[in-house]
Write a structure and sequence with these properties.
Helix 3 crosses helix 4. The protein has ten helices and 13 strands. The protein is an alpha/beta fold and about 290 residues long. The strands form three sheets. A six-stranded mixed sheet has the order 6-7-8-3-9-10, sandwiched between helices. A four-stranded antiparallel sheet has the order 2-1-4-5, covered by helices on one side. The radius of gyration is 22 Å and the shape is globular. Helix content is about 35%, strand content about 25%. Bound molecules: adenosine-5'-triphosphate. The site of adenosine-5'-triphosphate has 11 residues, from strand 2 and helix 1. The site of adenosine-5'-triphosphate (ATP) has 11 residues, from strand 2 and helix 1.
């Protein structure tokens, strides 16, 4: 369980976090999404104890992270956006170091290391130097250092950036397994289909705050889907329009006397949610930076 309340972080005039609140219960994967610069990484860095907030409070399980920064490592697995591995050490040595920081010792440590290497398909490269690995393999090693020992809180900041489909799928399975075993997971990504695969709940960040929080269904159901109809009429072979009430729209279409050849209703998805954030930000006069 993670509770963050009222976090503020300033860099000069920039308010990277501006009253950021987020609660992540045990067993839940929260997809933390938002445009570039919304404050996601700053939040992860603060929870990980890498950056000190100007205001606000964080609790991890029953531990106050401000008071017990060192002890917090036992509760926390972190895969930061910028890779933090030892290039001259082997994969196994890197994972062993983090297993030690997580409080694992002796035979249990070796078993957990072997397990996470297998889970992330790293066994074959376990004794190679990290500096000699491909980018995707390094990402997996970084994830292994976070997942080893199954800490009750995981902070994964774009863990699959640049990963191939096989790497992605191995990592998503490992994350799902940790949540099923009771871990609270914060997962940031710009690749939204991952959050569907993870069945994550969502937290939408904008300008240093969480502006919406809920399940995918709760956050998308009010958005328009899309009605697509094709006709035999060569003058207008296809009609596409946003719809919040496909039944009523279809009834109106049939009443107009036109006969569709095919009808498809696309339910609103996470892309629509993301787009609606961009529209809302523009309407509010907020600068949208590099919307992904
Ligand atoms: P992205 O999706 O690009 O990873 P993000 O949501 O993770 O973005 P942050 O990296 O948290 O965003 O950045 C939030 C804001 O804080 C940005 O305007 C950024 O320029 C600023 N910022 C972050 N770290 C620093 C720093 N060390 N010094 C100065 N400004 C910073």
């Amino acid at each position: 369980m993670l509770i963050a309340e009222g976090l503020v972080k300033r860099y000069g005039l920039c308010r990277a976090l501006d009253g950021f609140d987020l609660t992540v219960p045990a067993g839940e994967i929260v997809g933390l999404i938002g445009h570039n610069g919304a404050g996601k990484t700053t939040f992860v860095e603060i929870v990980a104890g890498l950056v000190r907030p100007d205001a606000g409070r964080i609790s991890i399980a029953t531990l106050d992270a401000r008071l017990a920064r060192r002890a917090a490592r036992r509760f926390l697995g972190v895969a930061p956006q910028e890779l933090g591995l030892y290039g001259t050490a082997t994969v196994r040595e890197n994972v062993r170091l983090f297993a030690g920081l997580a409080g694992l010792r002796g035979r249990r440590r070796d078993v957990e290391i072997a397990q996470v290497l297998e889970e992330l398909r790293l066994t074959a490269v376990a004794d190679r130097r990290v500096g000699a690995l491909s980018g995707g393999q390094r990402r997996r090693v970084q994830a292994a250092t976070a997942l080893v020992g199954s800490p009750p809180l995981l902070l994964l900041d774009e863990p699959t950036a640049g990963a191939d489909p096989e790497t992605r799928s191995a990592l998503l399975s490992a994350v799902r397994a940790r949540a099923e075993a009771g871990a609270a997971v914060v997962y940031t990504t710009h690749y939204l289909p991952e959050l569907v695969d993870l069945d994550a709940t969502l937290a939408l960040a904008r300008a240093g705050r969480i502006i919406a929080r809920g399940t995918q269904e709760e956050l998308t159901r009010h958005l328009p889907g899309e009605l697509r109809v094709t006709f035999a009429d060569p003058a207008e072979p296809e009609l596409r329009r946003p719809t919040t009430d496909p039944g009523a729209d279809l009834a109106a279409l049939f009443a107009s006397g036109r006969t569709p050849v095919s009808v498809d209703v696309r339910r609103p998805g996470l892309d629509d949610l993301y787009r609606s954030m961009a529209i809302a930000a523009t309407e509010a006069g907020t600068e949208v930076r590099d919307a992904a």
